[in-house]
Amino acid sequence: MSTKPPLLSICIPTYSRAELLESALTSLVSQVSEVAGEVELIVSDNCSTDQTAEVVERMSRECPIRYHRNEENVGVVDNFLGTAKDLARGEFCWMMGDDELVRPGGVRSILEAIKAQPELDYFYVNYSIDTFDRRPAGVVRTDDFFTWTRTGTDNVDERRIERWESLLAEDFNCLTAIYCSVFRRSMWLKVARNLKAGEPFTSLEQTYPHSWILVRAMVGKPAWASGYPWIVMCGKESWADFIPLVVLVRFHELLDDYVAQGVEARYVEAHRRRMLSYATEPLTRILQGENLPRLESFSAVGFVVKHWRYDELWRALYRSTLTASIGQVARRSPVLLPFALGARAHLRLTRSYEKLRARFNGSARGAIY
Question: pTM for the whole thing?
Answer without folding.
Answer: 0.92
